[in-house]
Amino acid sequence: MLTYALSKDTNKLEHIDSVANGLKCNCFCFGCNDALVAKNNCSSSRSNHFSHYSKDENRNCLMTQLHLAAQHHFLNAEYITLPEVSFLYKDEFLTNKAINLKVLSAQLETKIDRYYADVTIETEIGTIAIEICVTHKNEHDKTAYYQQNKIASIEYDLSSYLSKDIDEAIKDLNEYAVESTWLYEWCRDELIQNHNVFLAKEKVRIHQKRQRSAKLSMTKLMFDKRITLPDLTQYFKHKIGGTQYSENVSVFTQKEIQLTEVFEVASTQEYSLLKGNLNEHIIWIAFLLERNQIPDDIAKLGGSAIIQTPSINENEQATWSWLKYPRLARRIEHTKKQFINRCKLKKQLKRNVNWFLLNTDNLYKKDYQTWSNWMKKINYHLKFILSFHMFCAIKKNIHVCGCLILGIF
Ligand SMILES: [Zn+2]
Question: Whose CB among 3, 33, 123, 363 lies 3.0–4.6 Å from 392's, allowing a Cys bridge?
Fold first, then answer.
C-alpha cells in the first residue's frame, strides 16, 4: 500500500495525510509514473493511502516508495547516529563506538565521479555517502571505488521491510534500528594509523624483553655451563609397491649435559650467540630475538647448533630446537633403517591377511571335519573364544594367526 508519493509540483515526498484528497493531491508514483489518487478519508477498516489512477500498483511501485522514504529520511534528518565501527586488521578487531552527529546539509542522488550516491550528508567529521538497499546490494564497482578513494560510506538494508508496512520502516529508520554495513568506515584510516603506532611500540617493547631474557639465560649458562639439548624428531617416508608409509620418529631425546667451557661470541639486534665446548666438540647456542627467519650468520655456522626461538605469545616460553646436528647423522641413518624394516613387516602382514581373506572358503571346506572333531574334545570356554578361521590360520600360516589374535583382543 502506498502512503508516500512525490509531489508533481515540488518533487518532494509527501505523506498521504498531508495532501488534498483525490487527484487534487497532485502526486505521482515514482515507480511507474502514473498519477495517484489520494484516499485520505478512509474508514477505520482501511488506512489512508494513494491508489493509482490508470495503472495497477506493482512490486516496483512499493520498492520505489520504500527507497524514496529512506532517502528522504536521511535528507531531512537533523541528526544522524552512525553505527559502531568494527573491522579486522592484522588479526585484531579495530572498533569505534556509535556516534551521534548534527547533519549540516544533505543532498539526494549526489554525483561522485561516475557514480551516484543515494544520499550524501555533510557532518563535522566530513561527508558520508549513504546507500539504501531495497532489492540489490550496492554495486561492487561503486563499493570498490568508495574503498579505494577512502570515501566514508554506509549501506542501510531495507530488503526485509518490503513485505511490511512502510511505517515500520520509517519508525526503525528514526530509531536507527535498520541493519547497516559500513562500505568504508568513517574512522578506518585513523584506527589503522593508531593501531600501527601501537604495534610499532609493542615490537620495540617485546624485542627489549627478549633481549633481557636472553641476557639472563646466557649469564646463567656461562656460570653453570649446563645446557639441555632438545628432542630431535625426523620425518621418514618409504614406498613399497603402491603403498606409501610415513612416520615421525624420535631420533634424540632431550638431555642435559655439562659443558667444559661456554663463552659469548656475539650479540646483535637479531640474536645472541654462545660457543660451548664439550671436550674437543663444539656446540653453538643461539638465542634468536625474532621468530620469522634464521639470521644468515647463524645459518652459516659449522658443527652442531641449537637455537632458542621466541614464542608467538609473549607469556609462553621460548622453544629450543636443533639447527644443525652432524653428530647425530649415524643415529638418523640407523633409525631410518629401522623404520624401513617396520614398513616391510607391515607390508608382509597386509599381504598375509589379504591371502587369508581370499582363501577363507577353501580352507573352510578343506578342514571343516578336522576342526569339528577337535572342537568336540576341547573345553567349552575355549570353544567360545576360538573360531574356525583361527584354526585354519594356525594350520596355514603363523603370521595370519598372530594377526587374528591381535584382531580379537
Ligand atoms: Zn506505480
Answer: 363
